[in-house]
Amino acid sequence: MKKEAIKLSDIKRILIGEAPFEFLLEVLLRTGIIYCVLLLTVRLLGKRMSGQLTITELAVMILMGAIVSAPMELPERGIMQGFAILILILLLHQGVTWLEVKFKKVELVTQGIPKMLVADGVIQTAVLAHVQISKDQLFAVLRGQAIYNLGKVKRVYLETCGKFTIYKFKASKAGLSVLPPEEGRDNTMQQVKEGNESCSVCGYTREVKEAVASCPNCFNNSWEWAIL
């Protein structure tokens, strides 16, 4: 479109565009057909597409958004092109899934492996940095599971689909508080464990009488009282 043809007073162009008014009815028909085909395609892709998405499934969802827009909106494009591409995406996805089942290396390349973020109440700082998750994000997940200190956490895994899996100790143990700093240490959800302190970076907990100044896990020198 030429620059001279663009006018703010051209309400018809702004609301309807260059296509004739009748094309609006065609858009409704196209959208209905594409919507039904898209539902069928997602159904054939498998139940995981409606749950937690893996990397390959997320890629498929992004592609489908781009695929269906043109056949619905552009008058010079037929909907059969959209059908053909959706079928191709379905075949590609099924092929990759079959390869993942047959060959472990393919699954490792496409999906990756779960990462352990917390082990026995101690944050694995190197892993946390590798997966690009902040300590605040991890603490938010733990608070959502009614966990108020790291001492209660046996393991935290980041699954390949992005979901967190948490295992707890049965008995209460002292550890680093996961509550926001402004919450303070005088609330009813936690109490100070006398004689124990936790590394403020990774949560490693020790007795105060230990002579070593730095944390043996992350070599940090900042400590705070352990919380029950």
From TrEMBL:
Gene3D superfamilies for this protein: bsu07140 like domains
Keyword terms of this UniProt record: Cell membrane, Membrane, Transmembrane, Transmembrane helix
Domain YetF C-terminal span(s) in chain numbering: 102-177
Superkingdom in the source lineage: Bacteria
Leader sequence residues: none
Transmembrane segments: 27-46, 53-72, 78-99
InterPro entries for the chain: DUF421, UPF0702_alpha/beta_dom_sf
Gene Ontology cellular component terms for the protein in this record: plasma membrane
Subcellular location: Cell membrane
Similarity comment: Belongs to the UPF0702 family.
Protein name: DUF421 domain-containing protein
